[in-house]
Amino acid sequence: MRGKRTLKRKAFFVDEGAVRRARRTLGVASDGEAVRLALDRVNEGDRFWTFMARSGGRLKPGSIRRP
Is 64 exposed, middle or buried (0-12, 13-18, 19+ CB in 10 A)? Predict the structure, then answer.
């Protein structure tokens, strides 16, 4: 996770198998970490696709540096 964040307690129902698979895939120890990291990844993907839609094919190959 990036920087310090404010966490808020939420109560909701989730598929236990999905959380278990997410924990294994993401390599984290707790359900909370799995949920937070999964949400981070979803938001990151959304930002990426928003950027791609805005760029509209105007980027030249090699114009973006890898981190």
Answer: exposed
